[in-house]
């Protein structure tokens, strides 16, 4: 399940959702803007950055990390990303805080002792979705986050409940955005099902939403990326011999436009060093 894109859409639609998860949200939470940024040298990808309104002068910047797989160096990476971004933008912000979202405590990094000061100091907020309570009692936007974690047997029933609740409680365009997100979550969770089977499960017609068309296009895009990356890897292996796992992973993770640039640039490479320099520059 591609949870990164789902949570990106959630925060994009409702930036204030993050502040429903922290005990002491800023008083101007409604004015925050969500962004996703990359910090180079070295390159870090930050899942989400919540920026205070510039009109209020320096404010608190919030970093968000959504973690659904165990990573034993997650906190080291998050502190490095956050500190570097804060350092480079120090004049814009008075402080920083971080919110780490887990499906459950079992996914959290095992050795947290080196990070005890930050984790227990009020600057870092750890959220465990399975501990937020009954999905039907949660605010609708928080319930959407929890929907990504419930058991597959339970998910269809809870999705139908949230669809009904949305049509009863919300007004357009908010209701439309929520319906789109519910269907997105369910199509991602049940990728093995046909369109007709997902429609029957949810009791709606997917052609009434953008989700099915967007996901099919996303699938085609991913297919093009994979095919292009595989072609480049074969060409490089033929020229320079077996590639390291690090290089293969770096190339496989490139977006399609960059892969297309690489397919042209590699014609001028004479050694692996040329490739490594090219990758580091991006």
TrEMBL record:
<dbReference type="InterPro" id="IPR010106">
    <property type="entry name" value="RpnA"/>
</dbReference>
<dbReference type="InterPro" id="IPR025587">
    <property type="entry name" value="DUF4351"/>
</dbReference>
<dbReference type="InterPro" id="IPR022573">
    <property type="entry name" value="DUF2887"/>
</dbReference>
<protein>
    <submittedName>
        <fullName>Rpn family recombination-promoting nuclease/putative transposase</fullName>
    </submittedName>
</protein>
<feature type="domain" description="DUF4351">
    <location>
        <begin position="221"/>
        <end position="279"/>
    </location>
</feature>
<dbReference type="Pfam" id="PF14261">
    <property type="entry name" value="DUF4351"/>
</dbReference>
<dbReference type="Pfam" id="PF11103">
    <property type="entry name" value="DUF2887"/>
</dbReference>
């Amino acid at each position: 399940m591609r949870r990164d894109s789902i949570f990106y859409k959630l925060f994009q639609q409702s930036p204030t959702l993050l502040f429903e998860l922290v005990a002491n949200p800023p008083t101007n939470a409604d004015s925050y803007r969500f962004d996703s940024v990359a910090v180079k040298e070295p390159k870090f990808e930050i899942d989400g950055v919540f920026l205070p309104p510039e009109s209020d002068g320096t404010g608190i910047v919030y970093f968000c990390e959504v973690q659904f797989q165990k990573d034993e160096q997650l906190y080291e990476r998050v502190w490095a990303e956050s500190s570097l971004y804060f350092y480079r933008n120090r004049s814009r912000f008075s402080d920083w805080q971080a919110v780490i979202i887990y499906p459950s405590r079992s996914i959290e990094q095992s050795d947290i002792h080196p990070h005890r000061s930050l984790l227990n100091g009020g600057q870092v907020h750890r959220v465990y979705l399975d501990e937020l309570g009954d999905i039907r009692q949660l605010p609708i936007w928080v319930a959407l986050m929890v929907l990504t974690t419930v058991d597959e047997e339970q998910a269809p029933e809870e999705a139908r409940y949230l669809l009904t609740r949305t049509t009863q409680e919300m007004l357009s365009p908010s209701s439309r955005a929520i319906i789109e997100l519910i269907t997105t979550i369910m199509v991602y969770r049940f990728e093995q099902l046909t369109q007709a089977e997902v429609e029957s499960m949810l009791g709606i017609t997917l052609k009434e939403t953008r989700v099915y068309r967007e996901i099919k296009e996303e699938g085609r895009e991913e297919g093009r990326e994979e095919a292009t990356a595989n072609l480049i890897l074969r060409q490089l292996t033929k020229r320079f011999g077996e590639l390291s796992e690090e290089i293969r992973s770096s190339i496989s993770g490139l977006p399609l436009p960059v892969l297309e640039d690489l397919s042209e640039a590699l014609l001028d490479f004479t050694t692996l060093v040329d490739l490594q320099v090219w990758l580091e520059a991006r």
